[in-house]
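ok trying again, last paste got cut off:
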Amino acid sequence: MMNNGNEISHHTKLYGFIGEFAGQSSISATLNKLFKANNKDAMMIPMNIREDDFFFTAVNMKKSHVNGALIANEYAKNVVEVLDEVSEAVRFSGMCDIVLRDEQKLVGDILGMRVLCDFLKERGCKKVALLGIGSRAKAFCFAAKEFEISYFYDELERLMGFVDYIDAKDADINRIADGMETDLSSYDAVIDFSDFNSLKSISKLSNLNLDMKQKKEFSPLKVRANELEAEYVGFENMLNELSSAVFDFLKQSDHLEYDKSDMRF
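nice, full thing came through this time. structure:
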């Protein structure tokens, strides 16, 4: 097991958290506590990677001592280009937030949206207002089969294309835009995966409002939730749930077995 000094041996399984401001997140520290509590010789290291260096870092992971990585939002689409194998969820959405190295291949999947769906179910949510039509919105819809989702965006034609793509039958589509007052208080949760710079048009939010953004990411939902005194949940508010999911994912992938380590320094 890892000792109290968190020292890395040649058997330690190393994982990265790759993001532009990865070191400002507590996800690595939270996961490392979980590794230690379960006597696993593994460690996650925050890796602050600039956009210009991202592809070099990702491609070279295939021949590195890093066994996998959690991918921050800003690189979740870019990383798909360097993957050798992808899950159905990645193929459907065009994004990836967790990568495992299988010898010299990178295998990608999506974990955060499963965590989000479990979080919503634990809070008793059924009716969800979803803002946005991008890859994260697609990934959420792929995982969120059990919810009654209403879809919101400022361009109706593109929104209709989105619901066609995700094959949402009889979809409840709604336009949201500056100058149009929107009341979302009837929903159990509001999820913002949009590219909006402001959500001033929302007059009332739900009791639970989420976008899974990290500290350094600008969150118009957080701004509006603070203005309306509504609960906001971002990435840092879900560290325990995310860490537990990463731990279980690695364990199910046989990544935390001592005799699986191929690392030698």
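cool. The longest strand covers residues 13-19. The longest helix spans residues 239-252.
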